[in-house]
Amino acid sequence: MAEKLSAMLPCPSIREIVDFYEALGFSLTYLQERPYGYAVVALGEIELHFFPIKGFDPAASYGACYIMTTDVDDLYRRFREGLKQALGRVPTRGIPRIGPLKNTAYDVRQFIMADPGGNSIRVGQPIPSAPPPTDPVARALRLASLLGDSKEDYPAAARILDRLLTGDALPAADRVRALILRAAMAMHLADPTLATHLLNEATQIPLDTPTRQSLTDDLTRAQDLRTTLRDLPS
Q1: CA distances to 9, 79, 100 from 115, in Å
Q2: Which 3 state secondary structure label does DSSP give 43?
């Protein structure tokens, strides 16, 4: 006996949703236009079904699914490359978008996408369990990340980071991490001027090679933020 579960998700337009997933590397395996729209896309064992709803607002979507993988870094790279080739950029804000890749507090390394239907697509890989941090700085960074990236409580995350950045001197790696995360919160709070200032400060902090390697996810996020800032209308 074998079972298979496929997600069924809403969208405003079948063509738009298919184009998005084909850019990610999915294959269109089924398309129906009449008497109602329906499409199926697949990538390996991942299968997603979509149906259009007239007047559907992606910003109000509650559609979601979780994709587990054994190589989340590879999928993240492939999805980003596909979107950049199709759209000319990696969309990190609005709909559609692809969020940062990071290790979570619940022992999963993951990133979150929003497709053109506003559906939240989480892609994750289990990682070895780690005890909660006891260092006050690490605890503050973890809480700010949880509030900002998971709960989307950007003001609360910003307050934690502001206290951290104006308090005692931080080690270089922690300060860079805090500055980049605060810049991301500034973008969510519609303050590109502050985001630019914070990213510039992070860039000026000298990092040795091992520290830079430990900050790979954060530095990738910083580069995405800079690209978003550069593309904002003047």
Answers
A1: 10, 12, 15
A2: strand
* SS3 label, residue 234: coil
Q: What is the pLDDT of residue 102?
A: 92
This prediction's pTM: 0.86
Give pLDDT tens digits for 152-172.
899 999 999 999 999 878 999
Where do the structural domains in the chain lie, given as residue ranges?
7-126, 136-225
Q: Above 80 in pLDDT, residue 2?
A: no
> 55, 22, 60: which is closest to 40 by C-alpha?
22
pLDDT digits (tens, 9 = 90+) for 38-86: 999 999 999 999 999 999 999 999 999 999 999 999 999 999 999 999 9
For the domain spanning 7-126, the CATH number is: 3.10.180.10
- Concatenated DSSP letters of 100-165: --EE-TTSEEEEEEE-TT--EEEEEEE----PPP-SHHHHHHHHHHIIIIIS--HHHHHHHHHHHH
Supply 129's token pair: 């369990």
Beta bridge partners, 27, equal 42
DSSP β-ladder status, 64-68 and 120-126: parallel
